[in-house]
Amino acid sequence: MPLVVAAAYGGPVVSEGERRQTTIYDVAAAAGVAPSTVSRAFSRPGRVRAETAERIRAVAAELGYRANPQARALTTTRTGMLALVLADVTNPVFAEVVRGAGRACERDGYTMLLAETEESAEKERAMVDRAQGSVDAIVLTSSRMSDAAIRQIAKVEPLVVLNREVPGVPSVLVDFEPAMRRITEHLAELGHRQITYVAGPEASWADGMRWRGLRLATEHLGIRLRRVGPVAPTVAGGQTAVVDWDDHRTSAVVAYNDMVAIGIVRRLAASGVRVPEDVSVVGFDNTPVGELVTPALTTVAAPLRALGETGASNAIALAAGARSRATDPIRLPTRLIARASTGPVRG
Amino acid sequence: MPLVVAAAYGGPVVSEGERRQTTIYDVAAAAGVAPSTVSRAFSRPGRVRAETAERIRAVAAELGYRANPQARALTTTRTGMLALVLADVTNPVFAEVVRGAGRACERDGYTMLLAETEESAEKERAMVDRAQGSVDAIVLTSSRMSDAAIRQIAKVEPLVVLNREVPGVPSVLVDFEPAMRRITEHLAELGHRQITYVAGPEASWADGMRWRGLRLATEHLGIRLRRVGPVAPTVAGGQTAVVDWDDHRTSAVVAYNDMVAIGIVRRLAASGVRVPEDVSVVGFDNTPVGELVTPALTTVAAPLRALGETGASNAIALAAGARSRATDPIRLPTRLIARASTGPVRG
DNA sequence: CTGAAAGCGCTAACAT
DNA sequence: ATGTTAGCGCTTTCAG
């Protein structure tokens, strides 16, 4: 069966049906060297004479040789793949993380495997389970699993958790405390003396951190803090929170995230309460829509892309043998973005 | 070196450092059968007596056996992985596609590999190149590569293209023609007699289709059509388009997508032109933000999730040997969503 | 620096 | 229905 060689797309292509790939043996034969030398020429360039390596590369290119990743992985136990698991790519916050992780992978020649858990701890476990054998490292974003489960996985596989602190497991997270302090200061400067926090999902580690940071900061500045919720981290969730706020009105509201904040603003507007004249509203995440709604949202920009990027590159380093048992989380700095949804409190 | 067995997370776990996995040989020995029988028990359950299979499974579970995907792939040449390549997960449109493809993969027990090309045809080629050996099928979303290059890949690897038509290559796409017709009818019903189309990226296949659909529909209904652009498919892009529109004002503007539409509305508002009182604006894609901006955007909902899902499942079917050389694209239906950015033309 | 030989863990004929 | 025997394509000792 004759090979049909096509010039256009990188090397030989076999006629439909027949798919035998060119192996190191083919290259070896054509280059007049032993197969092991071909292998070395690709995986350990230093260990072969420059000339020989050159010739081998040439022949390989001509024959369209491509190393078989599976075969390689079989002996090296390294697949060059990293699994990124998260709840929902459709959430802009996670999308940024994906982008960052993708960059890190590309930089280090890794391939990224994406697993969406759709908020289910069970699914998350299943996905990790399946990915486990195929990847060199795993990055868990806002994991829903128990600390114990996560630690267990970390024991078997290089693992980094994002937006979550698990003692003993490398993690990188958004530095919430200063973020909440900045929000509080911003509000205080505008004259606000009481704040309502609209909480997000109870199970969320991030929600706990935001609440904690806010408590610390308000205490320090002598500001009254109330908490309502939890609500779903969505526009609808924010809307439902307004009735609770209405029970004990405060001049400022800090929402779990931008979506919730937008929901609050909308419901407020619907009942004739003006933002920011009557009440100031603060979001979190600096989601793109925050800039497009009216009024534009005051919010906190988290370095989401960097989160994904450092998470992935740390995981890759771990896979490469970097036993940095320094278990202190890496904390990424945030930035307050003051826009039109906050304003001075009215006498 | 003694093994440390942990009960908590699915089976044995070795002490740090030592990572030897349990193989079919271990299971075979423990179950008192030949290795090949263990293999069969997992890959070809029918070919082994129920009792035996049961015993093998039990032993395997106890030993924490997990098939090595690389080894399996080496003989079967099937990896159980699918590559989804697209420009940008951060774009809500693509995020939905990812979600859909992820679902299809999960349903069929596939693992999804994600590659972001960041709009570069070169990068796209490189990513495909790298994924090629590791996956059973590839899904290309809004590819920037040439038809020839795509066809070449399709010859070597099961491939489905999304949002693009490449003769001879299976594709699934949003059915633009009826979508543009619906937009035109909607506008015509409101009394509009001239429309400006604000074009997206020139290289975009989707842009070409939208323009074509609009031309057909306006011709049919006797409506004047003008075209401005191309502009970047972003809010900023939309803003720049307004000056061109201003040269020959029309009572209605159809934008390449929601982002462009939002940009247009904002710039219009900034110069005192009211939407929809003075001019009606229509977007495309039904991005979540379209509902949150003021005025809420009239747009077209494309079945993005379904796009990803049918794309992936077709690719998987192809990988499984379904030689459906029916090269007619699958066209997915759209839905007009009339909101507040369109209104009757004013006498 | 290069060659020869022995697997990695699994599946796929071929036997029985 | 199960056991035996060869490899899949690559890396890796171990020799030379």
From TrEMBL, chains A, B:
It comes from Ruania alkalisoli. Residues 22-76 form the HTH lacI-type domain. Keywords: DNA-binding, Transcription, Transcription regulation. CDD domains: HTH_LacI, PBP1_LacI_sugar_binding-like. The keyword Ubl conjugation does not apply. It comes from the Bacteria. InterPro entries: HTH_LacI, LacI/GalR-like_sensor, Lambda_DNA-bd_dom_sf, Peripla_BP_I. GO terms for molecular function: DNA-binding transcription factor activity; transcription cis-regulatory region binding. This is LacI family DNA-binding transcriptional regulator. It holds the Pfam family LacI. The keyword S-adenosyl-L-methionine does not apply.
